[in-house]
Write a structure and sequence with these properties.
- The complex is a heterodimer of chains A (about 325) and B (about 300).
- Chain A contains 13 helices and no strands.
- Chain A is mainly alpha-helical.
- Chain A has a domain of about 230 residues: MetI-like (MetI-like fold).
- In chain B, about 75% of the residues lie in helices and about 0% in strands.
- Chain B has twelve helices and no strands.
- In chain B, helix 7 packs across helix 10, helix 9 packs across helix 10 and helix 11 packs antiparallel against helix 12.
- The mean pLDDT of chain B is about 85.
- Classes of the chains: A mainly alpha (about 325), B mainly alpha (about 300).
- The interface between A and B is large, with 59 and 48 residues.
Chain lengths: ~325, ~300
Amino acid sequence: MVLFVGKRLLLFGFMLLGLLTIMFLITNVAPGDPAKLMAGQNATQDMVETIRREYGLDKSLPEQYAVYIGGVLRGDLGRSIVSTKPVVEELLRYFPATFELVLVAMGLGILIGVPFGMLSAVYRDSWIDHATRIFSVSGVALPAFWFGLLLQLYFAVHLEWLPVSGRLELITPPPEPVSRLYLIDSLLRGEFDTFREAFQHIILPALVLSFPCLASILRVNRAEMLEVLQSDYIVAARANGIPAFRIITVYALKNAMLPTLAIIGLRFGWMLGSTVLVETVFDWPGIGLYAVQSALYSDFKPVLGVTLLIGFCFIFINFLIDLAYGWLDPRLRTQ
Amino acid sequence: MASDITSAAPTGWRARHAGTIRQWRLYAHLFRRSFSSMLGLFLVVLFLVLAAAGPALAPYPEDTMGAVHLDNRLKPPSLAHPFGTDEMGNDILSRVIVGTRTSLWIGLIITGVAALIGVPLGIFAGYMGGRIREVIMRITDVFLSVPGLALALAIVASLGPGITNCVIALSLVWWPGYVRLIDSKTLALKEELYIEAARAIGARTPRILFHHILPNCVSPLIVKASMDMGMAILSAASLGFIGLGAKPPSPEWGAMISVARSYMPDWWWYALFPGLAIYLTVLGFNLFGDGLRDILDPKSRGR
């Protein structure tokens, strides 16, 4: 097990270095002059040169690479041109909102995806199976930004059940920061009205974000369940007279969950990427919205910072899932 | 005498290709049996026709090139304008129809470029094995470690907005999937007897790769390409929605929704119809790809 963890750690470090290299290449090898882009369209030659010197863009590529890696390791991702604040500071401010949204969306995806995948495998070729299949294919095809607008139109504007956008009403003070996740903080402080408000605000964006994830969890879980349900040990359990419900939920689900776990890890990253769209639609003050607004001002340090953060989270989650795999399936440790 | 020849030729051709014909009829039969595959085929054909005929089918072709009819602004759907009109008084149906061509082109280029980069790398990695494979696959893994949309956003941000840069960015993030697919397929194929036989009679590596291995990778490749067409269209529309893709006067679906957003909720039809077009296109390609997989990959049948 120690060797297994060590190997995974090494791979984890390698992936991070690779990620940093890609991000470096994007800014420095892309055609076009980064200094000019940063200075904006109306900049004079002098301003461009000043920026070039200030950001060390006049040095050679390997030197710049070393400076870049060193900077990232010290937690320096450059400054935003629009707000002039360090990117790291702003990422820390916006990330909790995104994290909360992704957590709730992932929870929805698992809570709905896994049971329906099971149902659809158990009642194969019934109406419920067909309905889930149509649902799971369309879930991937739905443009998140459009679906979000439609849900806003129906639930917020037409029925007036839920708020249109934001994390809380403008006049509501956010709960005292502990974890910076409003749902948890408001509960910790016993502010139940704030909790209800935060909950109402998060439902629609989380639902939109969870949709593709829900669809793929459902699909994988169904396929795995079908396979597991045909295996010998399930037949043996049936022959022994163990109740069907227990066989499905305890015996079969456990083994069908392994590939589902891999999909959850994969989808986690996709979700972080899609926050760019969902947060734009719902004005959710997270890193996705931050990246989009910065990109529209050609302020690219924040965009790179967000991409780096998303990539880091994705690699980290997959590292954890790899470890979980090793723990759940002892055969993998010896490979 | 002439009629004899023409009637003899088809039987001869049929007899010679009886095996292939039987195979294709089986495929057609399997495909027809599934409702969702046929729905996918229908949608794909529909949008291909719209893309090909485009301006000829649009009721108001001049509305797609920046015409202004201020007396017709933001009219709800009616007989004259089934999808309503936008803030310039342009017919939304015409703009959606003409936008089909843009979207399909974008999808085709992204998928094509991704396959052109990914397939040779994958086949090379899988066949060579050892160090070379290790290097190629590690690079692929790193690219796969950032969600496509986020990486594309970073690339577009540093290249500058615009539809061409969007296509470049999405092509750059799309190829690793093909490397993975073709690599695993090649790994399995290279142990086959006929590859060994080809090697034994002295076939050179390029010939083995492109004449013996590649044709056997075609069916998973087609399935993936079909699915990716849909997803690439969706991603390009997403970048358009964010405001980094096509600029608004040009009829691109994502950009249309981006503008329409400020006219919600009172002028709902403006965002509804372009979005529906994206949804149906992506759904069509996904169902079609799914149907192809069902017939081309016997193992997945019935799952």
